[in-house]
Specification:
Blueprint lengths: L6 H9 L5 E2 L10 H5 L6 H9 L12 H8 L10 E5 H13 L5 E6 L4 H8 L3 E6 L10 H7 L4 E7 L11 H14 L2 E5 L21 E6 L11 E5 L2 H14 L5 H12 L1 H24 L4 E3 L8 E5 L5 H12 L1 E2 L1 E2 L8 E4 L5 H15 L2
Parallel strand pairs: 1-11, 3-4, 3-5, 5-6, 6-7
Antiparallel strand pairs: 2-8, 7-8, 9-10, 10-13, 12-13
This protein binds pyridoxal-5'-phosphate (PLP).
The site of pyridoxal-5'-phosphate (PLP) has 13 residues, from α5.
Pfam family, one: Aminotran_1_2
Protein name: Transaminase
InterPro entries: Aminotransferase_I/II_large, PyrdxlP-dep_Trfase, PyrdxlP-dep_Trfase_major, PyrdxlP-dep_Trfase_small
Length: about 375
């Protein structure tokens, strides 16, 4: 089975440990164990006492009842039986695609987006058409284009909402129109929902609350600031979840007793995590947009309170060379747009620690005007 190299991951695997000012990541600034375990009324002693008493057996195979219940509460129409724990959203996407896509299937994938969403279906023998989002259209997809791509045999539409790398959002009205198009041919709509817009004005709905053949994948890695615990999940209707169960047994047994306990703790305290992260997104987005206003060498379609942004270079041609030089000479890491198939751009993860963002942007300007 042939598969393309994963552009972003290959870049980060090589360079992320070399950065002094890492403004490449799409996670809202990760939290320490100490911060996590002492949020609100919580205290770490209680957590560790419970953990000390835990046997390190396989634990709950699909995720503990507490985990599945907490996750189901993130949706309007989902019961705990529809939730399966996975190894991050990466594991969730892999499971859903592996379980449903067969050679010869037709798949439509938003592009640019997360590479799993088009290169896994391709590797499974599907014919993949890109549904391009373009900068001229504020990185938003065009429904008419989807109507020209859809076929009677389209098996699945793969979306990433909010979008990595651009930070743009398909709001509920538009998603409802996408569902109508998918419904006409009975296609699944898989939406990777790891980026939740952190403001009160963006109207976004999970695909599973809009469409019976909707599949949501998600994790605690981005909006919930804890990629280190490697916990994600799939949500789908009961019949599709049963298909996932079968394939899941071949790819993972469980996500681990410790990780599950941490995940439950985070989900029980999600309001505190989200409050923290709303503040970070708001403050840092202001820093980013103020910088953009005074930096003629780049432009930006401003992200919708989502922890990733995609800048366009106005003066640099080779984004990959520039990003390498930026890291070597200035200690600043971004992800070149070429890694998403969009040269002349870069992903700028502005939800880093504030001091890192401020110094990173200052140095980025120096490099741009060198
Ligand atoms: C859209 C998207 N999905 C999934 C992932 C991976 O998530 P996880 O760390 O939960 O596996 C990423 C990471 O960058 C992502 O951007």
């Amino acid at each position: 089975m042939e598969i393309a190299g994963f552009g972003v991951e290959e870049w980060l695997n090589v360079y992320e440990t070399q950065a002094t000012y890492d403004i490449a990541q799409s996670t809202v600034s990760s939290m320490t164990m100490n911060e996590l375990l002492n949020m609100g009324q919580a205290n770490s002693q209680d957590f560790y006492r419970d953990l000390d008493a835990q046997k390190m057996n396989y634990g709950w195979i699909e995720g503990s009842p507490a985990f599945k219940t907490e996750v189901s509460h993130l949706y309007k129409t989902v019961s705990p039986e529809q939730v399966l724990q996975t190894n991050g959203a990466t594991g969730a996407n892999q499971l859903a695609l592996y379980a449903l896509i067969e050679p010869g299937d037709h798949v439509i994938s938003m592009y640019p987006s997360y590479q799993q969403l088009y290169d896994i279906p391709k590797s499974l023998g599907a014919e993949v058409d890109f549904w391009n989002i373009s900068e001229e259209n504020q990185w938003m997809p065009d429904l008419d284009e989807l109507r020209t791509l859809i076929r009677p045999n389209t098996k699945m539409i793969c979306l990433n909402n909010a979008n990595n790398p651009t930070g743009t959002v398909i709001e509920t009205n538009l998603m409802t129109e996408i569902v109508k198009i998918a419904q006409e041919v009975g296609a699944y709509v898989l939406v990777d929902e790891v980026y939740l817009p952190l403001d009160d004005t963006t109207d976004v709905s999970s695909i599973v609350d809009l469409y019976d053949k909707g599949i949501a994948t998600n994790s605690l890695s981005k909006t919930y600031s804890t990629p280190g615990i490697r916990i994600g999940w799939t949500v789908a209707n009961p019949a599709v979840t049963d298909i996932f169960r079968k394939y899941r047994d071949y790819t993972m047994i469980c996500a681990g007793v410790f990780n599950d306990q941490m995940a439950v703790h985070i989900l029980k305290n999600k309001d505190l995590v989200l409050d923290r992260n709303r503040k970070i997104v708001k403050q840092n987005l202001k820093i980013l947009t103020d910088w953009i206003d005074n930096e003629p060498a780049v432009s930006l379609v401003v992200p919708k309170s989502v922890s990733t942004s995609f800048i366009k270079f106005e003066t640099i041609d080779d984004d990959e060379q520039f990003c390498k030089k930026l890291l070597k000479d200035y200690g600043v890491l971004m992800v070149p747009g070429s890694r998403f198939g969009v040269p002349g751009h870069a992903r700028l993860g502005y939800c880093a620690k504030e001091s890192v963002l401020v110094e990173g942007l200052k140095r980025l300007s120096q490099a741009l005007h060198e």
